[in-house]
Amino acid sequence: MKIIAIEGSPRKDGNTEKLVRRVLAGAEAAGGQTELLKLADLSINYCQGCGSCRVTGECVLKDDMDRVVDAIQQSDVIVLGSPIYAWQVSGNTKVFMDRLCRLLTPKYESRLSGPKKIAFVYTQGNPDAEMFKPYLDYQEKVYPFLGFTLAGRIQATGTRGREDILSQLETMAQAFAFGKKLVSS
């Protein structure tokens, strides 16, 4: 089973990346083949809203999004990780999301190359796990529209400092178990 993680934090080796890597470690322990794409390391331009991709399946912009979509198409499971900034996913993650419209035909049918699961990994500075629940629930309604099957969510709260996630042993253990489950289910 192939698992691709798409990580949207602008921080290098920050809480989100550490938590996503823990999910991937669990997937590898269960026999999964993993890859991590860090959006901050890629060149992905803003969607131009031209609609060409909906007709052709190809974007007129030639950048690293082609590589990301190819990786998605070759994967069985996508792990999407993002910090929550100002009640939303990071800017990098939002730009990525906007560019996924190429996965839909003009009749709103999915262009995914077979069944694909998507799992979410969120970190947030706010210690209240319920604070952003309506937004996270909304986020998880977008991807089934594109043809993905939801596989669950890991959410870490109180992660303001760069190393805060490392002291959350229970969350890190849940992330590892979550990664294993992504492969076995």
Can you tag this structure with a few keywords?
alpha/beta; 6-stranded mixed sheet; globular; 6 strands; single chain; 185 residues
Give a verbal description of the structure:
This protein is α/β, with parallel strands linked by helices and 185 residues long. The chain is built from six helices and six strands, in the order βαβααββαβαβα. Strands 1, 2, 3, 4, 5 and 6 form a six-stranded mixed β-sheet that branches. The longest helix is centred in the C-terminal third of the chain and has 16 residues, at 169-184. The N and C termini lie close together (11 Å). The model has no long low-confidence stretch (mean pLDDT 95).
What is shown here, in short?
36% of the residues lie in helices and 21% in strands. The chain is an alpha/beta fold and 185 residues long.
Shape: globular
Instruction: Detail the poorly predicted runs.
Output: none
Query: Biggest β-sheet: count, sense, barrel?
Result: 6 strands, mixed
Secondary-structure-derived class: alpha/beta
β-strand number: 6
Helix coverage percent of residues? 25-40%
The chain-level mean pLDDT equals 95
Question: What letter string, H or E per element, gives the SSE order?
Answer: EHEHHEEHEHEH
In whole angstroms, the N-to-C terminal distance is 11 Å
Calculate Rg over CA atoms: 16 Å
Number of helical segments? 6
Strand percentage lies at: 15-25%
